[in-house]
Amino acid sequence: MKKRLERAIRNQLKLIQNLTECAETIFIYPDKNTILSSFQSRNDTNHLKNVLTTYFLNNLLKNSTRNISLNKESFSHIKSIAQFHHIDIFPFHIEKSHQAFLLLLFDEESKSQIQESLAIICESIASFYEAYEEKVEISKSSLASDLLLSTIQGVPWSLNFNTGLFSYIGPQAEQILSFKPQEIESMDDWVNIIHPEDQEKSLNYCKKESIAGNDHVFDYRVIKKDGTIIWIQDIIKVIHNNNNSIQLYGFMIDITDTKEQELQLENLHNQLKYILKYSNTVLNIVDDKQNIIYHTNKNAENIKLKCYEYFCKLKNQCNDCPALKTKIEPTKYYREIGDSTYLVNAFPITTKEGKIHIGEVRVDISDRARKEKQINDLNNKIEFLLTSGNISYIEHNLETEIFNCNRVFTEITGYDLNNIVLNTDWLLSRIHPNNIKLFKSEINKVINRTKQQLDVEFRFLTAENKYIWFHFHGQIDKKNTTKLVGILLNITNNKKLLNDLIDAKNKSVHANELKSKFLANMSHEIRTPMNAIIGFTNLLKSHITEAPFNNYINSIESSGKTLLELINELLDLEKINSGKMEIKKEKVNLNFILNEIYQTFIIFVNNKGITLEIIKQGDIPNEVYIDSLKLKQILINLINNAIKFTNKGSIKIKYAFIKNSDHKSGTLNISVIDTGIGISIEMQKNIFEPFIQDDSNVNSPQEGTGLGLSIVQKVINLMNGSIVLESAPGIGSKFSISIPDVLYFNSLNTSIQIKKQNNIDIEPIISQEGSNMLDNLSNEEIKIARVEFENNLIPLWEQLTEMISLTNLNIFLKGINKLLEQVNWTDLKEYSILLYSNIKSFDFEQLPIQIKDFEKFILFIQNKL
């Protein structure tokens, strides 16, 4: 019995071996101590048999049970000994109580042939089962085939292609497809169990290949009765008979697990390709002929160029190609191709034939390379700037005490301390003793985070034993809190220059003080005799009227006034420059000030034959808080200039007040507009500089010091205001003043208007005979009058003859009334009444005449007292 069984099994093994043509088959029956193999034709049969016998009989059969499981460790052991890559094992039972094993062994190279061989196996198995269905007595020698069919996860079948009817479907259909063989009688039934998305494609492909007589293999999905979907691989053998009939033999294999693994692998592959694509990475393999046989993003079969042609755009192999080396090892190198830069990691791959292929991981690092280049360029620029600016850069790790510095630090100090461990105490010992306390204090503030930036100056002892001044600006590194970084500026020359400047400033301040004292003293000394000269010149003018002496007197008077004006302006300029001029604000009536200005200049305007007009624009507050004396000084200078440079036409003074939103303050705007000779564009650039005058009009030379506009601008600046000039030669000039944030009081006044007063005829009130003045005066009263005249009234009168001012007029009138309280002087009392009337009516046409009449009182006092 044993010999017959072995012979039958061996025959079946030989049949299977002949059909597969690629695998070795082994039958193991442990209980019978039987191992049958198709290796008998091979030289290593005895070796393999001994291996298997030793493994199964001596190791596995020591187990007390007769049911033996071959686990993964068993497979690995067999593969390692037998040198096969793949083993398929099929366990089965004999006589219901004995276990046997059928092994199918094949190597990697043979694996690709299995699909073709299975078609033939399927045909044989189908024939076997057809005979079985017809109840043909099966010999026990068919045991191995029967067992093989029962263990293979597949469905054998045969089909008459002409009729479309299945002649046979194996019983495995129910287990694998969930459909009984009788439920799949025709090709239409077969199509109906296929997934709708695969039906048309599968049917058309099968028909096309069958008609062409081509054996074929294809995959499709089947929907089982419970709705689950499995993958089927159909392996079909096509036979064209002599009677023109077509017979198909096939084998349906459940490849769901394999397909799922393939899909997982495909997903992983797609994910890998996606990652590689968006990380600018390419995997490729180059064979020993420099042909690209694999490329992650391209179909390698379509790449006809050599690797150096495709990747590097070269005609010949790269000089640093790893394949040129005697020993190929993993290599890293860079490739710059056009504007792109690639990092290539190359590694050798040895094939089964012993050939060396090169695998490459090619990463496009163009962006990184550009950024690295930008960083490198920036570092070079920074180093250049530091070197050009003679700026030292240092880093000191307070924990490791590693010190780094640039070349400038070495050149300045003479110490080459870059990238060395440097004791902190040594550094501190180089700092001047007078600066060490401040330096430590500032450093500790930064270390303790009470201060973010370090900014300190100190003296540092160089290698030449000389102290130099450093300005250190640094901070704690944000990425490394133990590292102090910063720059050092060599300020030795700056310190020397600063000391020189301080000395020069002290000398300048002292010189300015001396100059101010000198000007103050000299101005006082000069102003006193100048007032006397002008006063006596006025007296002489009334007595000397004959030419050419009267012209001499006029020249003396004009020169004296010019010199006095120059002295006053020099003093004002000196006060401004030295910061001694103060702004003293008070409540004043703008309309009153403008009326006073109008009355001051109307007589001079009339004498030149031009007109003066003051125009109020909008509502003006009753009172404003401003320095009235400075405002008058500004307007007098501007109007004086306008009169001086205007020979025909008019002068207009426009003023307005623009309220702020707080309803407490506003901006005062005043414009002085004339139709004079104008100012050239070139001269306008410097018109506000001291001692600058427009002398472009040589036909009409103008007198003046050239200080007026400079003083005006400086005074306006002191009042936080501004002045703007608009002018054109031959057309005229416009000076616009703007003083902001001027407080105002009471409501805006719209009722006050500037009106021209009617002239008042003033008859001579003083008799030509001076004796009449003394009719009612005693000697004591005459003495009192003489003292008051000399000390108060005559000096005030002299100022009024130069410029009529309402303030001075009121002071002058008060002085007369004070004198009248002590003396009973009838003529002077009547004069006082008329003067008061003219002041009250703002009649600035009559006031100059009346001031002139006061000269008769002066002459009387000088002659009689």
Molecular structure report:
- The chain is of the alpha+beta class and 865 residues long.
- 45% of the residues lie in helices and 24% in strands.
- The strands form five sheets. Strands 21, 22, 23, 24, 25, 26 and 27 form a seven-stranded mixed sheet that branches. A six-stranded antiparallel sheet has the order 17-16-15-20-19-18, with helices on both faces. It has a five-stranded antiparallel sheet with strand order 6-5-9-8-7, sandwiched between helices.
- Strand 26 and strand 27 form a beta hairpin.
- It is elongated and about 175 Å long.
- The relative contact order is 0.04.
Offer a concise description of the structure.
The protein has 865 residues and is of the alpha+beta class. Helices cover 45% and strands 24% of the residues.
